[in-house]
Design a protein that fits this description.
Cytochrome Bc1 Complex, Chain C, mainly alpha, globular, 8 helices, about 0% strand, about 200 residues, Cytochrome bx, transmembrane helix
């Protein structure tokens, strides 16, 4: 069993360029990715019971009536918190390590974009609860957006008729940002794969 397992491990390491798989410096990005994947999966489960026309009551229904709903809901919430904290730690680590310098400046830009998308998705996701804190957060968010010239047109696109208790637009906006984050998440992997392919061609 051990030789076959090592063969599979070597296969993945060769294809993905994971020569430093057991290096602690590479764990932060993997932890962020793991938290992101869990948040997406748990969010999809919550979506099965969520009603955008009654955000607060459907959230209460999930917590109180759905089997293990409270576990999924709060693990989704704290998974998002963990993802944000780990993303900040990862960005600070890369900044102080000089990972933004040539030739990795493109990966740094992608990372910054992913951080912005993560924060936006988390903000919109929390707004789906519809409680007093979420409503106040949306008011603050709308104020920040409207304070920037030319961005006020995005308020109805992002929030829709939020004050009336309909969160369908917020739900769609959160999904769109999450999908963009997922697509952006694959860019470093594609970069690594292309780099590995070029290196293997040079070796041949």
């Amino acid at each position: 069993m051990e030789p076959s397992f090592m063969g599979v491990s070597d296969w993945f390491k060769e294809r993905l360029g994971l020569d430093d798989l057991y290096n602690v410096n590479y764990w932060l990005g993997s932890l962020v990715a793991a938290a992101f994947i869990y948040t997406v999966v748990s969010g999809l489960i919550l979506l099965l019971y969520y009603n955008a026309e009654a955000g607060y009551s459907s959230t209460e229904f999930i917590i109180q009536k759905v089997p293990y709903g409270s576990v999924i809901h709060y693990s989704h919430l704290y998974g998002a918190y963990a993802m944000i904290i780990l993303a900040y730690i990862h960005m600070f680590r890369n900044y102080f390590a000089g990972a933004y310098k040539k030739p990795r400046e493109l990966l740094w830009i992608i990372g910054v974009i992913m951080l912005v998308l993560t924060l936006g998705t988390a903000f919109l996701g929390y707004s789906l609860i519809g409680d007093a804190l979420a409503t106040s957060a949306v008011d603050v968010g709308e104020g920040i957006i409207s304070s920037v010239p030319g961005l006020s047109i995005f308020i109805p696109i992002l929030f829709g008729n939020y004050d009336a208790g309909y969160y369908g637009r917020v739900l769609a906006s959160a999904h769109n940002l999450c999908c963009l984050n997922w697509l952006t998440f694959h860019l470093p992997l594609l970069h690594r794969l292309s780099t590995t392919a070029l290196c293997s061609r040079k070796v041949k």
